[in-house]
């Protein structure tokens, strides 16, 4: 029996590795560069929980995590995901193959109610009842009858000096409102599965923000990750049992764009031992809250977070101003670290007049570049030198660009239907995701994943189409009359893949040449007055570069012990990435907008592992924050299709002791 189990396990591992190899090829096709940093922090053995954030890419984030972990450390990671994900056959099949565990979420099974009310059948204790229009919800304490429910706590509303929302809530509860119901989900079985998984010394991946988003800050973390680590150690009979929690930061450069870049960074692990588990058993609430805050801080150390998109764009512009002219030689991990340090410095000294003035100057410079249609790296290449020399450079690059783009045309023509369909579907999915979310800004967090999914589904059919046409013409011409048709078809299919991939690479080279033509053309065609404006722009850049450097020199040593070493390496644009053994002493940043919801333990069955929406997060107003504030997400958005149906023919209003439907 043991031999059979070992054989089955080996087969599963081979399938896991094969799937990762396939996804690795897909990811490296979509992204131009995938880099990892801090992989020495990954424990080589023992139970590990990889805590990943921010969750900016639907299906890409977990694949990048599993791929880099397997490649750099040999660890195979299992993931936790919503049970809803498994209902889509193509995603569910792939997820099961790569050892993804599923769990229930409150709004994955929202009840549909038609005419009349049947609370005894459709509602349940500890479930939620919510008002339409996102006006609020309350936990059900008991169900008295089909028409009467007793709430554990009243709907949150201020009767004295009510806001506009409070007035709407009062009106809904007084005059009646449509509503939705959400069941109580028992996660005890999920927690036990996680405990068993960790007791076997395996690795687990989790995205504790609870759902997808495209914000520049982290969402509040859910308590599930801390409970899993502490609970696994507490439940184990091994006195030496410990669980490592490794923070993982996913940093994308234009996450939704084809041929963009991503850097995944592994932070220093936190180790949960028997000592911490003993404290957890005595005082679970404080221990869990402390761990959540620590995990949040550790995640901030490996991610680039900022309070708003405008500030982030300004910080990125400042980093480019500080960087050497040849920024292509600067490794991606170093760019990420520089962005992070500049944000930390700005957040700490943002109230100082000189810092505010510098931010405004950089923002104005950035805006001027946008108006001129230029990018920062092109400014230094603008020149008023000998026009003959400039013309020669322009013509050489134009020829190279033309050759590369011409070579890419066959593959572009063959594969263009995939680009068009993927773009249209991904935009549609982004609009749908944005409409059903309260935390998304543009819905770009689903774009890249849907582009890949559409390409994976549509590209094989397109290759078959072109292979059939090629096979037909080859036989018709009599060139392969003696060759079996399936061999010809297979060779044509593989040749189509080769053509499209070659076109991708040559087109990429051609595009790089094309972008370098603009400043040369600007220099050739500009009149004397325009050249004066160019010189002013270049002088403005030089002044800003000095100011940004002065900012770093003034405040950097106050925040970072390794300031001199790091910035000397960055300014030199060393082709080697930052030494992973150099762990910078980062200052503690405030947890604005990312403080985890306080946790109150009652039962693991009641604890939400993540938020109860695909990407919604809970407010922190509830007193039962750890349990109830997360559960409030069940009804925060009224889902369409399989998720929720609004009760159009039943209404509720507030009564003493409960709610009444009519």
TrEMBL record:
Task: Show the segment(s) annotated as Disordered.
Answer: 577-600, 612-662
Pfam families named among the record's database cross-references: Acyltransferase
Name the keywords, alphabetized. Answer: Membrane, Transmembrane, Transmembrane helix
Q: Which InterPro entries match?
A: GPAT/DAPAT, Plipid/glycerol_acylTrfase
Output the SMART domains linked to this UniProt entry: PlsC
MF-aspect GO terms: glycerol-3-phosphate O-acyltransferase activity; glycerone-phosphate O-acyltransferase activity
Q: For the Phospholipid/glycerol acyltransferase domain, which residue ranges apply? A: 50-253
Annotated TM spans: 402-422, 452-473, 485-504
Q: Name one GO biological process term.
A: phospholipid biosynthetic process
Highest taxon above the source species:
Eukaryota
Q: Where is the composition biased (Polar residues)?
A: 584-595
Q: Where is the composition biased (Basic residues)?
A: 652-662
Q: What is this protein called?
A: Phospholipid/glycerol acyltransferase domain-containing protein
């Amino acid at each position: 029996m043991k031999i059979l189990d070992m054989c089955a396990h080996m087969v599963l591992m081979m399938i896991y590795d094969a799937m990762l190899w396939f996804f690795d090829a897909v990811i490296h096709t979509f992204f131009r560069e995938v880099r990892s940093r801090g992989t020495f922090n990954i424990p080589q053995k023992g139970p590990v929980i990889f805590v990943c954030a921010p969750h900016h890419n639907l299906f890409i984030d977990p694949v990048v995590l599993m791929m880099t972990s397997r490649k750099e450390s040999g660890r195979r990671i299992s993931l936790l995901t919503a049970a809803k994900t498994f209902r889509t056959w193509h995603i569910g099949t792939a997820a099961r193959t790569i050892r993804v565990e599923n769990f229930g979420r409150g709004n994955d099974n929202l009840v549909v109610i038609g005419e009349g009310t049947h609370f005894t059948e459709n509602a349940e204790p500890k479930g939620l009842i919510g008002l339409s229009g996102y006006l609020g919800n309350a936990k059900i304490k008991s169900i008295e009858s089909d028409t009467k429910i007793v709430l554990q706590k009243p709907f949150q509303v201020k009767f004295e000096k009510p806001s506009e929302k409070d007035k709407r809530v009062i009106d809904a509860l007084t005059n009646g409102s449509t509503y939705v119901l959400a069941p109580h989900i028992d996660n005890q079985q999920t927690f036990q599965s996680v405990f068993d998984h960790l007791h076997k010394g395996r690795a687990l991946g989790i995205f504790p923000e609870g759902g997808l988003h495209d914000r520049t800050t982290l969402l509040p973390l859910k308590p599930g990750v801390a409970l899993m680590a502490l609970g696994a150690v507490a439940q184990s009979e091994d006195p030496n049992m410990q669980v490592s929690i490794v923070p993982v930061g996913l940093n994308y450069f234009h996450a939704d764009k084809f041929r963009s870049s991503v850097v995944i960074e592994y932070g220093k692990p936190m180790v949960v031992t028997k000592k911490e588990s003993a404290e957890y058993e005595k005082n679970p609430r404080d221990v869990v809250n402390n761990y959540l805050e620590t995990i949040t801080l550790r995640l901030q150390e490996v991610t680039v977070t900022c309070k708003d998109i405008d500030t982030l764009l300004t910080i990125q512009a400042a980093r480019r101003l500080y960087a050497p002219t040849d920024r292509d030689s600067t490794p991606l991990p170093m760019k990420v670290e520089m962005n992070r340090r500049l944000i930390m410095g700005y957040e700490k000294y943002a109230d100082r007049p000189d810092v505010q003035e510098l931010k405004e100057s950089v923002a104005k410079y950035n805006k001027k570049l946008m108006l001129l249609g230029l990018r920062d790296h092109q400014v230094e290449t603008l020149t008023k030198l000998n026009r003959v020399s400039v013309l020669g450079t322009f013509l050489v690059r134009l020829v190279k660009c033309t050759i590369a783009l011409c070579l890419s045309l066959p593959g572009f023509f063959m594969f263009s239907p995939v680009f068009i369909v993927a773009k249209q579907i991904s935009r549609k999915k982004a609009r749908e995701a944005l409409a059903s979310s309260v935390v998304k800004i543009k819905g770009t967090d689903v774009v890249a994943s849907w582009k890949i999914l559409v390409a994976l589904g549509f590209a094989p059919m397109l290759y078959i189409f072109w292979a059939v046409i090629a096979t037909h013409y080859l036989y018709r011409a009599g060139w392969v009359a003696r060759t079996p048709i399936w061999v010809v078809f297979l060779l044509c299919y593989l040749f189509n893949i080769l053509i499209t991939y070659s076109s991708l690479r040559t087109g990429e080279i051609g595009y790089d040449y094309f972008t370098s033509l603009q400043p040369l053309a600007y220099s050739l065609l500009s009149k004397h007055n325009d050249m004066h404006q160019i010189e002013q722009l270049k002088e403005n850049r030089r002044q800003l570069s000095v100011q940004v450097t002065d900012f770093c020199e003034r405040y950097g040593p106050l925040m970072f012990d390794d300031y001199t070493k790091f910035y000397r390496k960055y300014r030199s644009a060393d082709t080697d990435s930052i030494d992973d053994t150099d762990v910078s002493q980062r200052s503690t940043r405030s947890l604005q907008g990312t403080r985890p919801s306080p946790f109150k333990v009652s039962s693991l069955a009641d604890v939400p592992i993540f938020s109860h929406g695909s990407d919604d997060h809970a407010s922190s107003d509830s007193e039962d924050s750890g349990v109830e504030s997360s559960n409030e997400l069940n009804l925060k958005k009224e889902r369409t299709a399989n998720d929720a149906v609004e009760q159009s023919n039943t209404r509720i209003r507030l009564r003493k002791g409960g709610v009444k439907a009519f």
